[in-house]
Amino acid sequence: MEKTIRITGKYLWIPITPGAKDSIVSFYMDGVKIQEMCIETGEEKPHFYAWFDASAYQGAAMTIEGDYKEAWFENIVVRDKKPVNPSKRPLIHYAPEFGWLNDPNGLIYDNGVYHIYHQHNPYGVRWENMHWAHTSTGDFLSYTQTEDVLFPDEEGPAFSGTAILDQNNCLGLGAEAIAYYYTSAGGRSHWSKAHKFTQKVAVSTDHGKTLKKLEESVLPHINEENRDPKVFYHEESGSYIMVLYISDDTFCFFQSKDLIHWEKIQEIIIPGMWECPDFFPLTCEEDGVKKWALWSADGYYCLGDFNGKYFQAEKNKEGDTIARYQLYEIITDGENKADRNFVRPYAAQIFKGTGDRILQLSWITSVKKDRNYAGILSLPGELGLSKTTDGYRICINPAKELAKLRSESFSEVLDEKEEALAPCFVSLYSGEGQALEIELTVSDARQIKGKGESCLKLTVFGTLFSIDLSSREIKVGPHRIPLNEEKEHHLRIYADSDVFELFACKGLTYAVTDNEGDSVSGSVEIEYSGIMGDIKLHVLREIRISE
């Protein structure tokens, strides 16, 4: 079907009905395609309205072509204001107003602001139509959400990538210009079916607010889906390094002196690691040892040394393969690494420009019914390098800024009376509509006092966390999260309407699980035996998101 609509306002409202028929819809001005969408075109009243900025076409006639019904077209409107789509959002996790969110991209701290870009489908609550969305924050307490900054075109959707400050003015746009490397995913849309995956660059000269694509690819097509460039400046060698996912479990390193011309310097194969690479140094505070970490989407990583030309990854104890570790060490249904249908952190990236602080965000794969969005960002975590009995490992702890969300606090000492014959019970909190931070410090009283089993059941808004110090694990929903052999365990849980985030073992264990009740209303209760320690509960303020 082909219809024409007169552009009489700034925004074209696009009706979206999740679950309706898929349609490829193209938009033309004077015979030139300006936009293509794969969207669900229902005939009934839309669930919500997406939009795009049509201000450049004021007064002109726009042609809309695609496999849609006339009833869907009749729901399209043009307005001077964006549509308002009321929808429940998480309280302390960032989520877009509407649309699908996945991989964080181009994270950079510039001019006092954390710029956060992410994969975004602004035309539905499923993976399609990959754009780069943009939000920014100075403190992780309040966010400014702006319009999308990178768009699909005839060469492909805008897949994941990275940002780097062009401090040496390689691109000739000034030392404050930011270069954004991304994958142009040719062939992943009807519009780009004649193209292949290539690596491209966009630039910003206004501190990340707007991005302009450069025409030429900086890396041509290598294979079917080479993607997700990670670019940084290596001070010691005076060169720029790109890490690129190639295929299966293969990554390549490239080197450049000018951010445009790249030479392949290494190919590395690491079984079990794939896509969304990150690469960064960490220094152990205990002994000053420095390690480079190659990170992949599932939270798997390997450690080693890097000299600007070659990454020497550490081997396993047998010395025959590269040692691979995982920060997200969750056992689900008897298998390590949660099934992809479970809520989990994914595709984490660190911020550039933060000095000695290594701050990381990940995509949390939470999809809730009756929401105008799908997918949220994790809380900001600070990475470190810990020395353990098994060697060096990456640890993650909540960023210090999150403490400023606390509004009021409660605490309780956990210590059985000597004469106790039954588990102890504590009702710590009851409330509605507020996210929580829960800090637990617990020890095995069985070992200390010679008592029986050592376990604690923590129920938060109807979700049960069963902490068993005898078997050294935490059970929640379908997950089992291992604990280490420390005598005293420190756990921190953030409870939000969509998910729970859990940090344990001094940051060596990190997990995300679904809040199946979709609620932050109810009580927090504790039942324990053979446990001694204390619990602190902090009621948290809601983050602020504005435009």
From TrEMBL:
Similarity section: Belongs to the glycosyl hydrolase 32 family.
Alphabetic keyword roster: Glycosidase, Hydrolase
Source species of the chain: Lacrimispora xylanisolvens
InterPro entries assigned: Glyco_hydro_32 (IPR001362), Glyco_hydro_32_AS (IPR018053), Glyco_hydro_32_N (IPR013148), Glyco_hydro_beta-prop_sf (IPR023296)
Pfam families recorded: Glyco_hydro_32N (PF00251)
Protein name: Sucrose-6-phosphate hydrolase SacC (GH32 family)
GO process terms (BP): sucrose catabolic process
GO cellular component terms, semicolon-separated: cytoplasm
Molecular function (Gene Ontology), one example: sucrose alpha-glucosidase activity
